[in-house]
Structure formats: C-alpha cells, structure tokens
Amino acid sequence: MVKKLKLRAIGNSTGVVLPKEILEKLRVTQGDELMVLETPDGITLTSYDPEFARQMDVAERIMREDRDLLKKLAE
C-alpha cells in the first residue's frame, strides 16, 4: 500500500494524521504508542514493542514453570 500523508503543525511540533484504515491495520487507537524503527529499507512504523514482547515471554515462562504455585495463590 502506498499512501500520501501530509505533515501538519501541532503546537511547536510537526505531526501526521493517520487514516482510519492504517490505524486499523496497526491495531491501535488514539492514545496508544507506536514504535519507529530504522531499518536498511527505511523507517518502519509498528505497534510491536520488543521490550513488551520480551516481558510477556518471561511472564509466560513463569506461568508454565510455576503453574501449581500460581494456582495456590489464586485460591
């Protein structure tokens, strides 16, 4: 998809308004955060947060390893 977006003044900064269809593809809404990644092919805008993904991997590992303990705590 190629989409032309216009830069706009927002206070003392410059911003871009993302169309609804792009927000839907990113699965974000107003107030969410986006990550800007510099890649060899240019700039990538994504809702993927590598730090959050790492934290979720740790949480899932703990939940698998300590399932019995977590079950007791939930009682």
TrEMBL record:
It holds the Pfam family MazE_antitoxin. GO terms for molecular function: DNA binding. SUPFAM superfamilies: AbrB/MazE/MraZ-like. Residues 8-51 form the SpoVT-AbrB domain. The keyword Cell membrane does not apply. Gene3D superfamilies: 2.10.260.10. It comes from the Bacteria. Keywords: DNA-binding. SMART domains: SpoVT_AbrB. NCBIfam families: doc_partner. This is AbrB/MazE/SpoVT family DNA-binding domain-containing protein. It comes from Natronospira bacteriovora.
